Amino acid sequence: MPLKARSLVLTKSQAACLIALRNGKVAKPEIAIQAKLDLIKTATVLGTLARLGLAKQDQAKRWHTTTRGKTCRFKTIPDRLRRNSRIPGSGGRRLLKLLDRPMRGNEIVEKLGVSHQRVRQLVIKLHAQGRVTFGDPENPFWIIRRADDRTPLLSRDEEHVLSAIPREYVTTVTKIRLAARMPENKVQKILEGLIASRFVEEFEGLQGNRVYRLTEAGKNHPQRDRSSMVRADRS
Q: Which of 14, 47, 64, 183 has the highest count of CB atoms within 10 angstroms of its CB?
């Protein structure tokens, strides 16, 4: 017999997954990331939520709350601790050793010589252990860094603008706008932030206009796209 809503008790992991579902997460990886669980634990928890009548899976393998799951109240209890659950395995240690700077998921795949699926599993588990963070929670494999790495991560637009500035000489906001393919007012606002972060310097040009160049920190930022740099240099 189903438990009454007023007496429903969930473990912390079960509650975290239910909240992720209520927040519109439908795929197992994104549920795992929000709940800070590994994929194996997430699959187990979702199965339990389904048996409790709180979650269901559609034909496309996406997860959703049931009507009861959307509105039920619950109390939480701690999870049973798993032995060595906070210790990275050999694959996780290899990935952490590689991650000496923020990296994209594709770069990690290439350097480790394993599949995208394997990297996804490792990264999600390391995130659950609090050992890595993501630059974009909505697209976590875009840029990944160790939790103890203090390298400032840029937004996608900031990355595009930084990559549009030539490495060795000054440029104007108009040329940056053309290379980044953004409106000038948006580029100008992003430049102000990059200047405040000391990735870009601003000067007065020979004709009295404002010009911009990269600082050493800007040149060496791991998110600066070298292919974009080449296009900017040729513009």
A: 14
What tens digit of pLDDT does each residue of 111-158 get?
A: 999 999 999 999 999 999 999 999 887 888 999 999 999 999 999 999
The rounded distance, in Å, linking the Cα atoms of 20 and 197 is 33
Q: How far is CA 47 from the centre of its chain?
A: 26
> CATH number for the 90-146 domain, one of 2.60.40.10, 3.90.1300.10, 3.40.390.10, 1.10.10.10?
1.10.10.10
Percent of the chain with pLDDT over 70: 91
**CA atoms of 130 and 96, how far apart (whole Å):** 12
DSSP-assigned states of every residue in 41-86: HHHHHHHHHHHTTSEEE-TTS-EEE-HHHHH---EEEPPPPPTTTT
Q: What is the mean pLDDT of the chain?
A: 90
